[in-house]
Specification:
This protein has about 650 residues and is of the alpha/beta class. The protein is built from 22 helices and 27 strands. Among the domains are: about 80 residues, no CATH class; about 100 residues, ANL, C-terminal domain (GMP Synthetase, Chain A, domain 3, 2-Layer Sandwich). Helix 5 packs parallel to helix 14, helix 6 packs across helix 7 and helix 8 crosses helix 9. The N terminus is likely disordered.
């Protein structure tokens, strides 16, 4: 082949042979690049040939072109990496991955097993599958098809669970809306996502109406979406009647109008969108996070695998389903043919009662919920637990003291970490058998780290953002958590600038700062915007918070930077006290807290100011540090600390 090619180019007499000598065969991409250079060179040579020898016939020139093309084709094939065969994909051996198939299997294998429980209502997997098919059918009879967005504004009730299957079964995209947002914020979400249908809980109907009113005022092209109101036995019947009187379609009637044998639409492409969620948007408009069927499928199974969930698991919905689609456990429970126990409102008493009544085996919750369980009053607690209950916590770094307290009560806590952009948790603090021999305090500290990647996340690094090189695994050097793989979102909806920034250099940039320990486990130190720089030294607010949580009087704590005349910034602690703590002398309490901190941390970490009161929270229990930063700014700079 080389001889034929060399003969051809040398016959042109223009020195192309020199290029071929340096054509590397070991690197496919470089090989093809150099080959393209040769093709351009030969094309130029042929043009020169036709000018130099105009008397040559067209047929001779055509022969030369054909020779060149055959030679290049042969060389190109040399640069192609081939599999053992050239067998194609077909309908028999390839199906796009989607978690929707989990529901069909659950209905087939465990048709009579209880799928959902909500108050006095319960369904089997066969009934749930039929209801989801009816929902998909009814939606398809509306102007809902591939790529349409259907928003659901509801707490943890069966209709929201059914929406996770019925909406994508119609080819549409589910947007489960945070119910703790105000009307203005929801109006932005509905407008940005171009929602064509809005399903809303009866108690939230007035919120939805106000959101639509705001949307209509801000958009000249506003077209009101179809409203479907969801009734619930835990709500007053009047609010359901009022919504229907205002033209809303009643959910149960809507579902009944659908075909239980509807031939639902599995995605033709697993990259097809299945869900749309939104970031918290504390400093700007929230960003729309688009997730695909493939990621939802893989993360649903990864969550079960890493958590050690078993078939038939009984899962309590303490985590809002609207938060990252319930961390994908909406689909996981169908894969396991488990049982969903719905909670409209989460209290410590409701959690303990559900564990006793339904034999709950698993639940997920933000650390604030664990704190509520640990500090529940005696009349809310049912101990000892009838069995070990597995708890998955994420959303913020859980204090080791809370993990230790949960363990003493019979809960086995697993710490995970992730973002809306990674389908919820995508790393896990995987338990190691040798940790069992350690003191409980050390076990709790080890378990409070963010750990290692899920099996569906192919890349996890702590990077120096300037060099894009991994930081040393020394537990000290801070870098940014970066990820890549199937567990990363498709991108932000209608936001190319944000996508360019988020995916720079082939990695998803989380904005979270962490270290990697010698055992390979990562540990978050802070959000990049939450690092406190005092006297030129970086201080982790998370580490101060962890120590504050161990103070006997403190229920919750959050630390932010406050301007400081001497140091530039200094830590400001916002603290919620436990019930029963005497708070009549806040100055004395603050001095006691500072004295406690001085025995536990470096001097420059010790808060220069302490503020008492409830902490502002997001819908998922995260402390709204942006509001605390604003409050610290209003307080003005620390001139001379009184503590």
């Amino acid at each position: 082949m080389r001889a034929v090619f060399c003969y051809f180019v040398s016959d042109l007499g223009v020195g192309t042979e020199a290029y071929f000598h340096f054509l590397p065969l070991q690197n496919v991409s470089e090989f093809r690049y150099n080959l393209s250079v040769i093709i351009l060179h030969i094309t130029f040579s042929l043009v020169q040939f036709s000018i130099q020898y105009p008397s040559e016939s067209f047929s001779l020139l055509n022969v030369r072109w054909c020779c060149m093309l055959h030679a290049v084709e042969a060389l190109w094939e040399m640069g192609v990496e081939k599999d053992i065969d050239d067998l194609p994909k077909n309908d028999a051996n390839y199906t796009a991955l989607t978690p929707l198939w989990f529901l069909e299997r659950a209905a087939l294998v465990h048709s009579t097993r209880t799928s959902l429980v909500h108050g006095s209502r319960s369904y089997t997997w066969q009934q749930t599958y039929q209801r989801c098919r009816r929902l998909a059918s009814a939606l398809s009879n509306l102007p809902v098809d591939l790529g349409s967005t259907v928003a659901v504004i509801a707490p943890n009730i069966p209709a929201l669970y059914e929406a996770h299957f019925g909406i994508p079964m119609a080819g549409a995209v589910l947007n489960a809306v945070n119910i703790r947002l105000n009307a203005s914020a929801i109006a932005f979400l509905l407008s940005h996502s171009s929602a064509q249908v809005v399903m809303v809980d009866q108690d939230l109907f007035s919120l939805a109406q106000e959101s639509l009113r705001i949307w209509s005022l801000k958009s000249e092209s506003f077209k009101p979406p179809i409203l479907i109101v969801i009734g619930d036995e835990h709500c007053h019947p009047k609010s359901l009647r009022d919504a229907m009187d205002k033209g809303a379609i009643e959910y149960e009637s809507f579902v009944e109008s659908g075909d239980p044998d509807f031939r639902w639409k599995p995605p033709q492409d697993e990259w097809q969108s299945i869900a749309l969620g939104y970031t918290s948007g504390t400093t700007a408009n929230p960003k729309g996070v688009v997730l695909h069927h493939r990621g939802a499928y893989l993360m649903s199974l990864s969550g079960a695998l890493h958590w050690g969930m078993h078939e038939g698991a009984i899962y309590l919905w303490t985590l809002p389903m609207f938060h990252c689609n319930g961390w994908c456990y909406t689909w996981t429970l169908a894969a396991l043919s488990g049982t969903n126990i719905c909670l409209r409102q989460v209290t410590a008493k409701a959690v303990y009662e559900a564990i006793t009544k339904y034999k709950v085996t698993h639940f997920c919750a933000a650390p604030v919920v664990l704190n509520t369980i640990v500090n529940a009053s005696p009349n809310e607690v049912i101990l000892p637990l009838p069995h070990v209950v597995h708890v998955n916590t994420a959303g913020a770094a859980p204090p080791p003291s809370v993990i230790a307290a949960m363990s003493l009560r019979g809960f086995r806590v697993t710490h995970t970490y992730g973002l809306s952009e990674t389908y919820g948790p995508s790393t896990i603090c995987a338990w190691k058998p040798e940790w069992k021999s350690f003191p409980l305090e050390k076990q709790a500290w080890l378990s409070a780290r963010q750990g290692v990647r899920y099996i569906a996340l192919e890349g996890l690094e702590i990077m120096n953002t300037k060099t894009m090189q991994p930081v040393p695994s020394d537990g000290v050097t801070i870098g940014e958590i970066m990820m890549r793989g199937n567990a990363v979102m498709k991108g932000y909806l209608k936001n190319p600038k944000a996508n360019e920034k988020a995916f720079a250099n082939g990695w998803f940039h989380s904005g979270d700062l962490a270290v990697r320990h010698p055992d390979g486990y990562i540990e978050i130190k802070d959000r990049s915007k939450d690092i406190i720089i005092s006297g030129g030294e970086n201080i982790s607010s998370v580490e101060i918070e962890s120590i504050l949580f161990s103070h006997p009087a403190i229920l919750e704590a959050s630390v932010v930077a406050r301007a400081d005349e001497k140091w530039g910034e200094s830590p400001c602690a916002f603290v919620t006290l436990k019930s029963g703590v005497d708070s009549s002398d806040e100055q004395l309490l603050a001095e006691d807290i500072v004295k406690f901190c001085r025995t536990k941390m470096p001097g420059y970490w010790v808060p220069k100011s302490v503020v008492f009161g409830p902490l502002p929270k997001t819908a998922t229990g995260k402390t709204q540090k942006d509001l605390l930063r604003a409050k610290a700014k209003e307080m003005g700079p620390v001139i001379k600390s009184k503590l």
